[in-house]
Amino acid sequence: MKRVIFIALFASLIVFGAHDAWAQAAPAGNPTLNINLGSGDGLTARVLQLAALITVLSLAPSILIMTTSFVRIVVVLSLLRTAIGLQQAPPNVVIVSLSLFLTAFVMEPVWNQAYTNGIGPVMRNEMQLDEAFPRVVEPLKRFMGAQTRDQDLMLFMDLAHLNPRPTSVVDTPLRVLAPAFMVSELRRSFEIG
Fold first, then answer.
1. What is the pLDDT of residues 139-191, one digit of tens each?
2. Which domain, by its residues, includes 57?
3. Can you give the pLDDT at residue 160?
């Protein structure tokens, strides 16, 4: 008998308790996302702008990882885990997370300088994007140049057929400096490990 009363009370609570929910307004509709690409020359220009935006957004994480100290840190921590004789302790998620935080710590002065020199003025409409890009990249080039071995930089300059040679790291194109930096980071991380 108690069970029947409990079921009846529960059923009536569900039926009469949901009464207020029946009176609620219907949702406004599906959420939308609008991207304003400005007044381009036409549909083709806007499609190309959108394609370029999607390309940059998809490549941005890998560019950020490969032009920072992340590779060196994650390889050294992985080799350290193996040298201790542990297979899965700490897990890869912990190694990658620790590497991300250490990378943010190491790169923070570079990112602050890039923000101060170029990103901040663009956000305040004090500078055009084409003028700001070299100012944003300069601190990153200085960081990468300080960590790149001369032999690796010369190798990629030879492969790129750069004549005349750049006189400073800031004058070196990113297409040469970035791969030289990556190779140097890998080599140095294996030397540390």
1. 888 888 888 888 888 888 888 887 888 888 788 888 888 888 888 888 888 88
2. 43-192
3. 82
pTM of this prediction?
A: 0.65
The answer to whether residue 141 sits within a structural domain is yes
Q: What is the pLDDT of residue 132?
A: 80
Closest to 144 in 3D by CA, of 78, 71, 77, 76: 71
**Does residue 24 carry a pLDDT above 70?**
no
Amino acid at 171: D
- Distance in angstroms (rounded) separating the CA atoms of residues 36 and 19: 43
> Has residue 6 been placed in a domain?
no
Contact partners, residue 141, CB within 8 Å, separation at least 6: 169, 170, 172, 174, 177
Q: 38: which 2 tokens?
A: 């400005």
Whole-angstrom distance, CA of residue 155 vs CA of residue 183: 11
Neighbours of 174 (CB within 10 A): 14
User: How many other C-beta atoms can be found within 10 angstroms of the C-beta atom of residue 64?
Assistant: 14
Residues 6 or more apart whose Cβ sits within 8 Å of residue 134: 118
